[in-house]
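Q: Is it fine to ask for two folds in a single conversation?
A: Yes, each is treated on its own. Send the first.
Q: Here.
A: Result:
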Amino acid sequence: MNVASIPLLTADLPGCGGSFKTVPEDFEVEEVPAYDPCGEGQHLFLWVEKRGRGTPEVAKQLARHFQVPEREVSYAGMKDRQAVTRQLFCLPAKAEALAASFSDADVKLLWWKRHRNKLKSGHLRANRFGVRLRGVRDAAAANAVLARLGAVGVPNAFGDQRFGAADDNADFGKRLLLGQKLPRAPDRFQRRLYLSAYQSLLFNRALAARLAEGTLAKALAGDVLKKHQTGGEFVCEDPAVDQPRVDAFEVSPAGPMFGPKMTAAAQGVALAEEQILREEHLTLEVFERGRGETEGARRSYRVPLENALAVPDGADLKLSFTLPKGSYATQVLRELCR
C-alpha cells in the first residue's frame, strides 16, 4: 500500500506545509541506546556520525577499514541516508587499534568503547529527531497537529523507504513466499528485506482500515493489545475493561506482521485480518516458507510522540521529537506537511 493512501489522523486539522530533506542537515536522527558500553569485553562499540550515507554502506566501509568480515559488523537500527545521523556500530574489539586512523569527511567516529556483549538489531530504546521544515505556510497549525498526535498517538505505518526506491520490495517478498524467481537472486540481506517489506505492506493495509474506521485508539473485542512498557500481549475480551488502559497509553491495539508465531486475534478482528490475506490469495501457512525471517509478530498501531516542539525560524519551522525504535519520523511529517 502506498503510504500516501493511508488516511491521516489529523485530516480535520490544517497542515503547516513546508518541505524537508532539502539538504542532509535538514534531517537529524540520534539513537537513544538501550544501554551504554561498560568499557571492557570482546566487542567494540563505535558512536558514528554519518552524512548522506546509508547504514549498510557505512557497515561495509567499517569492515574494510577495520579488516574484519562484513558479517562481524552489527548495528541496532537502520538510519536514513539523506540525513545527518548518529548511531552505534559494533565490531570485534581486536580491531580497536585501527580506530584512531579512520578518516572520512562524511563518516566520523565520535568515540569508541568496549563492551561484553555484541550489539544486535533492535538494541535501542528510541530515536531523537531534529527536522527543519522549509517554507512553511502556517507555523501555528503545527502545534494543533502535534497536540493531537501527542494525545492519540502517531499512526505506526511503515514509511515509503521500507518498500524501496522502485517500490518493488514487497512484491519481491511475496514472490519469494510463493517460490517464484526474482530478476536477480537476492543475498541474505535482500531476502530478509523483501520478506519484511511484504509483511509491512499488509500491516499498513490493516492500519489504514483502523484509521478509516476511527478505531486507531479503540480496544475492540478480539484485538491483540500490546503493552508499551514490556511488549507483552493479550487478547481483549471486554473493551469496557481495557479501554481505560488504551486511553492511558498503557496498551495499544496491535496489527499483524503475518507469520506462524504471531499472536492470534479473535472475533471480528480476526475476520478482518483473514480478509487481508484472502485479498492476496494467501493463507497464514504460506509464511512458514520464510522460516525464521517471517515468524510473525504484532506491531502497535500507534506509538507515543514525546518531547515534541515546534519553533519558528524565519520562513522555516524547527521540529524536535522522540519516537520509539522502529517508528518512522516521516509519519509525523506527513501529518504536518500534507
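Q: Second one now.
A: Result:
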Amino acid sequence: MSYVHEPARDLPVLAQADVVVAGGGPAGLCAALAAARNGATTVLLERQGFAGGMATAGALPCLGGFHGQGRQVTFGIPAEIIERLIARGAAAWPARRAWESRSGTLTFVDHWELRLLADEMLREAGVEVFFDCWVAGAHLQGDRLTAVLVETKAGRRAVTCRAAVDATGDGDLAASAGAPFEIGRPQDGACQPPTLIFHLTEVDPEAIARGRPQEQDLIARAREAGDLELHREDVLMFPGHGGIIIVNSSRVPGVNCVDPADLTRAEMEARRLSGSVLHFLRAYWPGFARARLAQVASVLGVRETRRILGDYILTEDDVLQVTDFPDTIARAFWYVDVHDPHGPGTVWRYHEPGATTDVPYRCLLPRGVEGLLVAGRPISTTHEAHGSTRIMSCCAATGQAAGTAAAMAAGAGATPRQVPAADLVSRLNAQGANLDLTAA
C-alpha cells in the first residue's frame, strides 16, 4: 500500500496549532484536553458531530478497566470525566465487590450527558474543535509530519501543527504518514469481528435474569428453528445506565474494517444480524416480549484494524505479568479478551496477582515518523495484547499521555521522540495520573 503526501501549501489552511488531535473518542478527547491544559494551542478533528467515540456514537456507554483486583488503577483526565459525570447523576463507579472480578469492571455512563460534558470540557480547555471532518492524509517535510489533511464540508483543507496525535482508532493518520503497521493476527491477518450495539427498554429485568440459566438451550432451539443467526457462543448483554439493556451480540466475522468494501458489508450485515438477535430475544427469552429499541449505534463497534508499529511492541506477557516499565505512561485493568475472527469463540486470559495493563511511552511513537504520536486502539501491541489495551479506560489514558507529550514537544521545539520519558511520567503524575498507584 502506498500513500501520497500532498503538499499542504496547495490547500487552504483550516487552522494552525501547536498540537492537532485526529479523532475525538476517549483517546482523542483526553489527548486534546491534556495538550491544551499543558499550554499548547490545540485543534481537535472528529468525523462525528460530537466527541466520545464508542462511548457515545458507538452506543457502548460502559467504560471498562478503571478498576481491578480491588483497586482503582486509572486516574487523571479519564477518571475526572467519570467523577464529573457522577456529579451530574450520569455515572457511578462500580461497587467494591465488583472490583474483585478477574476481568476488570465496567463503569456505566449516560452517553447523552457524556456528549454534553465533552463539549463543556473542550470549551473550558480552549480547544478549537472541528466536527464532521475526516482525516484525508498527512503532509511531511522529510520524515516529520507538519500538517494533517482533512475533508470538510468546504472541501479538503490542511491543519498545520508542531505535533500531532493519531486517535482515529484505525491509525489512519499514522498510516497516511507512512508508519508501518500490522492488521489482525499474525498467521492470517484476520481481525477481531466488529459488532453493532443496540439498547432495549420496556423489559422485565427479573424475568431476564431467570432466563439466563437456560440461555444455551434457548439459543439451540432458536437456531434449529431458523430463528437466530449468531456468530458468537452466547448473547452478550448487560444493564446500562437508566435501566436500559445493552446488547452486544451482532458479531460480523471475516471482515477488515479499513477495507472499504469489507466495511460496507460489515455495516449492512451488522444491522441484519442485530435484527436476528432482537427477534430471538423477543420470541424466546423471558422478559423481552415487549422490548422496544431505544437506540441503535450510529457507528459500528470495530474491535481491531491497524496496529501501528512503534518503538516497542507490547506483548500478552507484558499485559498479564507484573512488568516494570520505566516509561509507563498509562495504566488500566482488563483481561486479554480476543473474539474469534471467523465465528463463535472468545479467548480470555487473566492478569497475574498484582499485574495491571501498563503501556510504555515507546508504544505511542510510530517508527519512521517524527512529530506524531498514536493513542487509543491502534497503539503498538501484538494481536493478543490488543485484546486488553483496546478497552476504553486504557485508550483514554494513552490519550492523556499522548496529548501531554505532544504539548511538551511543541513547547520545547522538539519532536515527541525527543521528550524524555522520565519528564513525561513526572508531568503526568503531577497532573493526577497516579502512575505509581499511591492513591489506590
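Q: Anything structural to flag on that second result?
A: Two points. The chain has eleven helices and 23 strands. Confidence is low (pLDDT under 50) at residues 1-5.
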